[in-house]
Amino acid sequence: MLPFEYCTMILADLGADVLKIEEPKIGDYMRWIPPKLKEENAIFLLLNRNKRSMTLNLRKEAAKEILKRLAAEADVLFESFRPGVMERLGLGYEELSKVNPNLIYCSSTGYGQTGPYRNEPGHDINYISIAGILERTGLKEPVIPGIPVADMTIGVYSALAILAALLARDRIGKGQYIDMSMTDCMLSYNIANIGDYIAGKREKAELRGEAPYYNVYQTKDGKWLSIGNIEDKFWAEMCEGMGRADLIERHSFGLSDEEKEELKRELQEVFKQKTRDEWLEIFKDKDTCVTPVQTVEEALNDPNFIERGMFFEIDHPKEGRIKQIALPIKFSETPCDRRSPPPLLGEHTTEVLKGLGYDEAKIEELKREGVI
């Protein structure tokens, strides 16, 4: 799942030794679903660098014992099962904190461990719906975002929470349990709309398609430009570049709905007269917020991302040379680590078990019994 993968990728890039526990033979389902490169899913390969993989069948008592032994030596356990699953396996926080009182145990779920929705199924669209975000996208009807916002966001929040808990452990001398909810994260993200509501303001849509100065416009070649000229100075620079200085005075938060629609139509007519690249050439020396609406391919070749070091490649034993997206954090003294490619399924199982004291004969027995 994306929340697990993204959270642990962040921690791994920051230097953590991340051991990924997967089901024997099957593994993480994201490994095998399309779109694949050669054998494994392209998204999985982007999210699992710097990790190790171990297989464990947690329905087997021997596997539970192995996990407990791992937990006894670990700093953090991160899981994303539905509420109650780990407890039913005998691997909940209360149980594992007995073998390691210093353990940080983080659970990431759709609705959290408490509340009336705790056992309900859900996906990203459900979480942003309940948090009031989806209703605030688009104008005439809700528009589904182009990425799984809740999944990615809880990955970041979970990594932040884990790091904070590790710092707190230094102060209070023990570990703790972290309950993360994707829906809670989305409610927290909805601060701007909630603030307007609390202040008693009317429902505004300036920043979701209503305003002429914060919108997208199609160009002559069928491509798109985005403009974000909220401030007067940026709007004026754009109008000057368009050769429409007469529009400068019409940049106002006080326009009626009809006036806004008329201004958007006028702007669209002007932008349709040139290609996207012609407009970008005109605006490149202007102090204005005009950018291309890029495809994924264009983003991957964008010179700003390239200069910022947002792309690198890594050698994979089966997939060959694979592209990676760097963590968007630039440290001056401790750059993010790029140690190893995404692990093969169960690649480090034997290594980990030997580290726990299991000999070859016992490891072979665990394989025969379907434990690993």
From TrEMBL:
Gene3D superfamilies referenced in this protein's UniProt entry, alphabetically: Crotonobetainyl-coa:carnitine coa-transferase, domain 1, formyl-coa transferase, domain 3
UniProt GO molecular function: catalytic activity
Superkingdom of source: Archaea
PANTHER family, per the entry? ALPHA-METHYLACYL-COA RACEMASE, SUCCINYL-COA--D-CITRAMALATE COA-TRANSFERASE
- Name of the protein: Alpha-methylacyl-CoA racemase
